[in-house]
Every structure is written in structure tokens, then in C-alpha cells.
Amino acid sequence: MDSILIIYTGGTIGMVRDDETGALMSFDFNSLLNEIPEIKKFECNIDSVSFDEPIDSSNMQPENWLTIAQLIFDNYKAHDGFVVLHGSDTMAYTASALSFLLENLSKPVILTGSQLPIGDVRTDAKENLLTAIEIASSTKNGKAIVPEVAIYFEYDLYRGNRSTKSNAEDFEAFTSPNYPVLAQAGVSLKFNHSAIYKTNNKQLKLNSFLNNNIATIKLYPGISEQQIFSIINIPDLRAIVLETFGAGNASTQIWFIDLLIKAIKKDIVILNISQCEGGSVEQGKYETSSAFNKIGVISGKDMTYEAAITKLMYLLGTDLSIQEIKVWLQKPLRGEVTF
Ligand code: ASP
User: Fold this and answer.
1) CATH number of the domain bearing residue 238
2) How many domains does one find in the chain?
3) How far apart are CA 195 and CA 264, in angstroms?
4) Ligand 1 pocket check: which of 15, 17, 56, 115 to mutate, most ligand atoms within 8 Å of Cβ?
5) What does the mean pLDDT of the chain come to?
6) Average pLDDT estimate for 309-332
7) pLDDT of 1 higher than 80
8) How many CB atoms neighbour CB 118 within 10 A?
């Protein structure tokens, strides 16, 4: 019989409304499972483990990602799939981080949550959780159908490191602008087999170092020299995610390019990510990005911001050289970027 481990980290899915203030607060995990008696109907063994203190995902930190990855690693042999219950706000960051931390994954790790608490009459939590369990336990010829980190939300399954939270109001909270959905849940589950990650059948490896000495510069017309100067002079800074316009474009002002050159000379990696959700950075397509290729800004191509941040934390946590890191930023490690 298949065995699934549910890891409960917190988020709206497990919250209750405070009668006096109306604010949403976490409550205990067993009460959450009691709200879904249908869980007992699955023909698989379901175990669960909960964070001691469930958290709103806005409080998620890299240490929490390492805790989740360690839990999956420690329980890997005993379980066929994993469902991580998580707040939607930073779910795409956690999913991206887990994809880099869990190398050679061959079992499903499905993150889900909900926009409304499980106790609410119109909650989306039940469908999300039940279908996530079904996906995590789906096999074909004895092998997991989705051997990767994915997000299931409102009838769609997305690759974790390709997804982003794009709506704070709709039940359909996530999109995966540069990669097709991995599955759709209608009357039956329709898997998009050609889009699903192919495992390499190697042994699972847990990577457990993340380096968060990184910063973001989100460009806007009128951004000051002082602001960029301050950021590139942050002590121990190792990388900057530069959020540019359109296909990776930016101002050609001399002071701006000069500051980037200074940063690159200090071995700070500058990774160019577009402010547009869909499409890709193409350095050199316009004059406003041609200097980037010359000075050594790295194209993040069609990576999400969440994948860019967590991939940098992961790569900077390895002992790879700065040159190797720059090469890997442009190649897919876990299907996070189109090659
Ligand atoms: N603030 C909540 C969280 O991310 C929202 C949610 O669960 O969807 O934990």
C-alpha cells in the first residue's frame, strides 16, 4: 500500500478566525485533519508531521526550507510521496528552494494550501488537499507520475520553481507563465506527461547550505545613484537580482553601468530578471541591454524571481567557483529555466 507523508507548516488552510478581532490565526493540525473525514477513504497510508509552531508563510525563512527538506530526506524511504501544507504567500519560494535542496528527487513533493480556512463554508482547502494527496500517490508501472516539487492549487498542478503567486483574492492564486501546467484536475486527473520532469534514478541527495548574502534592485525610471551605490556596497554581498524592464532592458546612463562594473569587479554576481511575468530576458536584443553582455551581467532568461533568489542562495552555498556559478545560473538544474 502506498504511503504519503503530510507535512503541515501553517498558512490559511489551518487557520481559524478569532471571534473578537476577526484576524486569522493558526490552529492545531489534528483539528485540521478532523475537518476532512474524506481523507480516511484513500487507499493509502497517510502519516503526518507538523511544525511545532505552524507559521504564516510570510514568516518562512531559509532555515524553515531546510527543516522541510530534512523531513522529506529523513522520511524518504518510508514514503512514496509528500504533501506540504503551506501558506500561499511564499509557497513559490519554498517550492523553488526545495527543488534545489532535494537533488535527484524521484518521488512527488506537492505543496498546497488554500485561500480560505478549512473551516469556512466555501473553503477551497478540501479540494486542494485531497487532490494533492491523489497526485502524490499517483503511479504508472510502479513509478511516481510526478517525481518533482510541484504546487497544486485550484485544479492546476504547476512546476514549483516555475510558479508564482499572482492573485491575492481569486481561488486561482498561482500561475506558471513560462511553463505548461503539469496536470489538470477535472472529473479525472489529466497529466501532461511530456512536461513532467524525468528522474535520473540516482540516489536522493540533500543539499543543506543556503547563502542569503544577496540583494535585489528593482529598477524604475528615476532610481537614484545613491540607492544602487548603497546596495553594491553592502558588506559580504555575493549577488544581486537586477529586476529589469521588458526583455531585460535598463537605462544606459553612464553612472549606472559604471556601478554595475564596480560590483562585478568585486565578484558580485548580477543576475538579470525581467519585471514581466511572461517571456524571457534577451540581453543584446535592444541597445538598452547590449552593455550587459559586455560587462558580464548574467541573463536569468525566463526564470521566475522566486527561482532566481533560491537558485542563487543554493549555488552560493556550494563550493562552486564564481565562474561555475555563472554558468549554472544560465542552465537548468531542476527544470527552472528554458535552455
Ligand atoms: N498569509 C497566508 C500565508 O501565506 C496566506 C495563505 O495561506 O494563503 O501563510
Assistant:
1) 3.40.50.40
2) 2
3) 36
4) 56
5) 94
6) 97
7) no
8) 24
pLDDT of residue 16 exceeding 80: no
- Based on the fold, state whether residues 324 and 286 are members of the same structural domain: yes
- The answer to whether 113 and 91 have CB atoms below 8 angstroms apart is yes
Q: Supply the DSSP symbol for 251.
A: -
Q: For the chain, give me the number of helices (H) and strands (E)?
A: 9, 20
The set of catalytic residues is 12
Tell me, using a 6 A CB cutoff, whether residue 317 lines ligand 1.
no
Q: What is the pLDDT of residues 18-66, one digit of tens each?
A: 778 878 777 667 766 777 888 888 888 999 999 988 899 999 999 999 9
Of ligand 1's listed atoms, the one at least distance from the Cα of 89 is: 4
Q: Which domain holds residue 266?
A: 214-329
Cα–ligand 1 centroid distance for 176 (angstroms): 19
Do 193 and 222 reside in the same domain of the chain? no
Residue 335 lies in a domain: no
All three cell numbers of 179: 511553463
| Shared domain check, 24 and 101 | yes
Output DSSP code: residue 47: E
Same domain, 28 and 94: yes
For residue 58 and ligand 1, the question of a CB distance below 6 A is answered with: yes
| Cα-to-centroid distance, 302 and ligand 1 (Å) | 26
How far apart are alpha carbons 22 and 10 in whole angstroms? 18
Number of Cβ within 10 Å of residue 201's Cβ equals 9
- Check pocket membership of 54 for ligand 1, CB cut-off 6 A: no
